[in-house]
Structures are given as C-alpha cells and as structure tokens.
Amino acid sequence: MLRYFTSGETHGKCLTAIIEGVPAGVRIDINRINDELATRQKGYGRGGRMLIEQDKAEILSGVRGGFTLGSPIALSIENKDWTNWESIMGAETAEAKKTVTCPRPGHADLTGGMKYNHTDLRNVLERASARETAARVAVGAIAEQITAPFGITFSRHVLTIGEISDKADYGDPEFDDIIKNSPVGFYDAECAEKAKTYIDDIKERGESVGGIVEVIVNGVIPGLGSYVHYDRKLDANIAFSVMSVQAIKGVEFGLGFDSGRTHGSAVHDEIFYESGFKRNTNNAGGIEGGMSNGNPIVVKAVMKPIPTLYNPLSTVELSDKSVKKASVERSDVCAVPACSVVVKSAVAFEIAKAFLDKFSGDCMEDVTTYYNAYKDRIEKY
Ligand code: EPS
What we know:
Strands 8-7-9-15-10 form a five-stranded antiparallel beta sheet. Helix content is 34%, strand content 19%. The chain is built from twelve helices and 17 strands. The longest helix has 23 residues. Strand 13 and strand 14 form a beta hairpin. It is an alpha+beta fold. The site of ligand EPS has 16 residues, from helix 6.
C-alpha cells in the first residue's frame, strides 16, 4: 500500500518525507519535483518567507540512476531560514526567544497547546504551519510520476479568491501554462488583475483572504476505488487527503453541494454507447459509487483565510488570562494559488494509491501487465 510520512518544523533544519510502496522501475525526474516545489512558492500575496526559501528536494534513498528501487524513498527539503533560527529551534539547546503566548483564532495554537501541554505555542505552530505542504508537494510529484505512464494527468487552478471569481475556458489547450504563469492561478487575465487589486486592499486592511481551488484529473481508467469497502472509496480517500491540507474547510466532487439544490434528472449523467460507454455531462465529477467512472475527476476545495492577521483579533494571554491581541507571525495575506498546487498533490497521491491498490506489483513491468489486461477486458465489456 502506498503511504507516506512527513516531518519537520517550519523553522527547523529541513522538511523530510518518506514514501513507501512505490514499485521498482518508476522513472523519477527530480526536476519535476523541484518545478512543483517552485510553483508552490509562487502566487500574489505571499509573505517574506518565500523570498528566503528556494525549495529543492534532495532524494536520500530509494532511487538509483533516475529509477525507483522499490525501497522506501526518503527526501528532504532544506529550510534556508534555519540559519536565522538555529539558536531558538536547536534540538539540543534552544533559547526561549520569540515565544508565542497569545493564540491566534483559527490556528492550531490554543488547542494544540492544551493537547500537548506546551506553554510556548511556538512548539505548536512550528509543526502546524503550512510550510509542511512543501513535503507533501514533493510526495505528490512522485505520485504523478507513478501514474504518468498510464496517461493520467493533473490540472489545477484557482476558482475564487475572496469575492473575486475567475472565468475559465477549460477547452484551451494552453490552460495549464496560463494558470502556471498567472500570479493568482486564474485563467482570465482581467479577473487576475481584479484579484491582485483585491489582495492589495486586503493587505492594507491587515486582513487575510481564502478561496476555492479546483483539481481535474484526466485519463483515469474506470474502476479505481471501491463500491464494496467504505475505506477504499476513491472519493472518500481523496476527500480525506484534501481535508488534511492546512486551512481546507470543505471538499466537493463535480456538482458537489449544488446536487442538493436540484432534482435527480438534472444531476445524474446519462449513459450512452459509441464504441465504448460515454457521458455527455460530468456532474458526478468522475466518481460514482466510490469508483472512478472514466470521466475526468473534478475536485473542489475551499481554503479559509490564513489565521495570522496583521490587524489581529482578540485573544487571551496564556499566563494571566488577560485580554490581548493575537500574536502576529510573519505570514501570507493570500496563499490560495499555492493551495491549488498542494491540493493537486494530495489528489495525485490518492490516485496513485488507488491505482497501485488495483494494479499492485513490485515492479512497473508487473503493474503494466495487470493494467493492460484489465484495460483489454473492460474495453470488451
Ligand atoms: C509557509 C511558510 C511559513 C508561512 C506559511 C506557509 O513561513 P513563516 O512562518 O516563516 O513565514 O509563510 O504558513 C502559514 C501561513 C501558517 O499559518 O502556518 C510555506 O512554506 O508555505
């Protein structure tokens, strides 16, 4: 079973990830990982930290000569900011500086402090920070390389930033490049300018802003996931993974929540046959009965505004319970474009996991044999 762990504090030495269950013989291009990491760092409205970092993955194990060995893959991403934090974040000695005692509403600070009995909330925020998503993006970039030989591709973009929406032409063959080059992950340049002005205004007011992102997966064969086992349902696993991304408050597939605002015939995708089964609509978002149905998988996720506000909300000082303003940590005003990259990684991991559950093999040759045999069989169905 494909699985991974991450470790690392935001101002610690590095982030690490270990991915286990990758078959032998997957071609790994480190440039693809680093390209995703660089994309995650971008976006209008990010804070000072991204000027310090230049995220790059170093593969420590599990890959030889550009191909996976079948053993666990360990990778690390250096935190360049560590040099500024070494004396505070050291494993052996740590100065009690830059302590945090005024928990930020919306962050893990207060409950994390209670739960782990930390009185310096830095001990919580260091790990709860969305810096950890860099490790997940590296994992996602490996996952994408597992499924790429089978024609599976991933697209991501931003649908809304606060009150500003994009107008996307999904049919444009340049779609992915346009999104990649957009400062806000939008398709439409005019909407992107509006979003930038909006973010400027948010920043001036000492506020932060969230948004809605979308990930589209093409080329997934019907039958990944399960209608039999609740814990192998593809939508359930994708939702779990996406919900676990910092600041995500909701996930939907296809028509999603709007399905509850209309009637059955307006929701369900009629079935046709034309040298293969096909649909003219995709309200299901590519998943029926917990299984991929061969249509694009369409996942939306909502990111709440980042909890650090430069114009902070009220809170309580931990030591004397006095009324205070929440701590202000350096932060981003808007990280929605970055979030779209992270959500894509989360989806990519779950697709690769479901793919390897179905076509399980120790090496890519076996995986390919099982995949082709299944594909041949269902094409005749
Ligand atoms: C992040 C790095 C962090 C934050 C951000 C995400 O760096 P620092 O705390 O040093 O500025 O910029 O994390 C948060 C917004 C948060 O609330 O935790 C990154 O690498 O994406």
